[in-house]
């Protein structure tokens, strides 16, 4: 036992049992977490940027079986499944994939054009914006108190 109502079974991979009900495997949960942490469609499907249509299709089928909401009750599985479907729809279409790759390249070039000073100023700007918002919030609270 690893906690109240939770037991680990090792024959087909660890399964969590909550109140005696088999819910999901660690593999399913880790797949959901990996999808949530992924930054782009290639990473989501775990394929290289020069992956063939067959590689993309095989990766999609594997993830679709693992994440399908009818088979995976892990938290976030339904959302992860939708993300996998979207990644497949984009990468399996030659036109959509070309547009996606081009937009990623343009975004990366824009980010590379920023110098350290630019990043610093963006951070300072964000910090000042947050500070200004907090000060306006406090000022409005003080005005409300003085009216009462």
Automatic annotation (TrEMBL):
CDD domains in the record: DnaJ
MF annotations from Gene Ontology: Hsp70 protein binding
Coiled-coil ranges (or none): none
Transmembrane listed as a keyword: yes
Keywords: Membrane, Transmembrane, Transmembrane helix
Domain J: residue ranges: 40-104
Entries under Pfam families matching the protein: DnaJ
Transmembrane intervals: 119-137
One term under GO cellular component: endoplasmic reticulum membrane
InterPro entries: DnaJ_domain (IPR001623), DnaJ_subfamily_B/C (IPR051100), J_dom_sf (IPR036869)
Biological-process GO terms, alphabetical: cellular response to misfolded protein
UniProt cross-references to SMART domains, sorted A to Z: DnaJ
Name of protein: J domain-containing protein
Organism expressing this protein natively: Apolygus lucorum
């Amino acid at each position: 036992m690893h906690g109240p109502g939770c037991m680990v079974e090792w024959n087909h991979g660890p399964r969590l049992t909550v109140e005696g009900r088999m819910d999901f495997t660690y593999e399913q949960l880790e797949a959901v977490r990996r999808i949530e942490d992924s930054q782009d469609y290639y990473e989501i499907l775990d394929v290289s940027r020069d992956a063939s249509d067959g590689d993309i299709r095989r990766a999609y089928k594997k993830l679709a079986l693992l994440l399908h909401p009818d088979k995976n009750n892990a938290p976030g599985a339904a959302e992860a499944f939708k993300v996998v479907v979207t990644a497949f729809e984009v990468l399996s279409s030659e036109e959509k994939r070309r547009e996606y790759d081009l937009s990623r390249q343009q975004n990366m070039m824009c980010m590379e054009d920023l110098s350290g000073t630019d990043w610093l100023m963006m951070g300072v700007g964000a910090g000042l914006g947050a500070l200004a918002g907090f000060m306006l919030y406090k000022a409005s609270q003080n005005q409300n108190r003085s009216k009462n």
